[in-house]
Amino acid sequence: MVRVPWKKLAENPRLSESLVTLLVMRLRERAQPVDGTGGDGGRDLFEYTDDDKLVVYEAKSFTGRMTPGRRRQVRKSLVSAARHQPDHWDLLVPIDPNPAEQAWFDGLRGEFEFVRHWRGRSWLDEKCAAHPDLVRYALQESADYILERIAEARAERDVLHGGISDYLERARALHGRVQEISPHYAVQTRLDADGRTVVHLSPRGPDPDGQGAIRLTGPVRFAGDDPQKARRRQRFEEVMRFGGEVELSADNLAEATLSGPAGLGLERVAVGGVRISSARQEMTPPLQGQVAVQLPSGVPLASLPVCFTQRVSGSDGGILYGSDMTGVMRVRLRYSHRDRSAQLKFTFQPPEAAIPQTLVPALRLLSQATAGYVMELAFAGEPAGRVRAPVSTGMTPVGWESGEARLWADAFDDLSRLQSRTGRFFPVPDNFTQRDAREVKDMLALLDGEETVLRGSTVSVGIDSAEALDKLGDIRAGMFRVTAGYQGLLFTLGEQQIDPRPCTEIYTMDKILNMKEAQRDLAAHGHATVTMRVAKHFPPVRYLGPLRDSGTEG
Fold first, then answer.
1. Which of 88, 125, 303, 373 could be disulfide-bonded to 116 (CB atoms 3.0-4.6 Å)?
2. Quick check: 77 and 109 in contact, CB under 8 A?
3. SS3 content of the chain, % helix, strand, coil (to 5)
4. Long-range contacts of range 392-397, CB-CB < 8 Å, 24 or more positions apart?
């Protein structure tokens, strides 16, 4: 077995994590890496499975033990990943957990139900053993790597005297021959992570008379006392009834046989496993609809236009796949012909960058979809095409607090209005916070000619003359007012800076807190900072423009 020098690789964390990334991409053909230049959003890789589930993979270069600091890093990644609403999340780190670490990891599921596997050192070493070229790549083509490549090239020449051209010619001939003997199916082969040959059979077209059907005959068994196999059984039954994808292992198929069109020779194949996939059909034209949240009386609260573009079918019904017009909300509708029922599933998947107004409709729908209200899906042009049912559980995304969807809907709505007022349009800044949302609301109020209340209980001003300090010192008791005028007022949102116009700030104070210290500093350095307490019942205010004659009085 290839021994991966994880400790050495950890000296360069990016190198170690790149090795794990390449390995997962080799094992999972749908996996896509994330460019982490601007922050990876809690995910190093992700994939959408055939049944539309989002799986997020987080790679860490840690070796040794999972210390408290490393645990905090993992949890921080989970918080970021939760914004993408994954169905599963796997941690890949070259540490085999001890009992205490495993208990900590299992406990994360209480807060993040999508946490799935800890893939540790043993698992990584096993998978790397099947792909030693990746390890050699990570070690930057050492001398040993070059020698091994020379030996491999010599072995290939002993069999393929024409080298690569010989191999390509034989591969093309075999590929062409297998297509000729398979009129009903296109055939593709590849090696899986365990070195086994995987054969993909894809229908070439419709088969109305069933002559090209592949049949799986015999019982399919699932161990009833194994939770994982119980879930697989449930998944198998759902796929048979409604379509989708499921994998069956050799244990499930011990008494089953395959048969199909003559020429394929499926009867002679020893089945090590089967992946059953429903072919996704493009819906032409797409099916348009409107999702709405309503009061029980029928009064609408929020709605979202959706478009279904694909479907799969089973014995009892099928599944429609689509999204809203912006792609922010993915929609899955499973319907049953048997009992005329349907189930809607929504996945909030905001893009890495989006103009704020594109996020608002989906967030409004999420914020209103609470228990006690009614969800309705109506299809365009179909008077009887309506699915209507009470909302049984809220749609708050994983990791969000109750009411957070409404908060962000209001915040992005305000940000959109600010962009329209200033003529500056840009995506929602990275790490846009609730504090940023408050500043946006304040900017809108200023642009509307209103006064905004400033936060804080003290004000500090710079003094560079004894005369100015003496004037402050003459104030023995009572309140006094300080007015500050600014030529510009710069607000920063991410990489964007907005400067509305000149502004005025008015502060009403009732006490100087450090007069003696300021006098000493002025005498010693020629300048001092005077700290004053803001009057409790007269908060400081800001407005755009010069000082108003009838401005706020202290």
1. 88
2. no
3. 35, 30, 40
4. 394/369, 394/370, 395/346, 395/365, 395/366, 395/369, 396/366, 397/82, 397/83, 397/85, 397/348, 397/366
Contact assessment for residue 54 and residue 84, using Cβ atoms and an 8 Å cutoff: yes
| pLDDT tens-place string over residues 512-536 | 889 899 999 999 999 999 998 998 8
Gap between the Cα atoms of 282 and 26, Å rounded: 29
Residue 115, CA distances (Å) to 29, 82, 91, 105 in order: 21, 10, 8, 9
pLDDT confidence bin for 177, thresholds 50/70/90: low
Cβ pair 494, 430 in contact under 8 A: yes
pLDDT digits (tens, 9 = 90+) for 332-343: 999 998 888 888
**Cα–Cα distance for residue pair 72/78, rounded to 1 Å:** 10
**Vertex 399, ends 398 and 403: CA angle to 5°?**
90
Pair 283, 269: CB distance under 8 Å: no
C-alpha to C-alpha distance for 344 and 376, rounded to whole angstroms: 10
Amino acid at 123: W
Decide if 294 contacts 264 (C-beta within 8 A): no
Crossing angle, helix 121-129 and helix 13-27, to 10 degrees?
Answer: 60
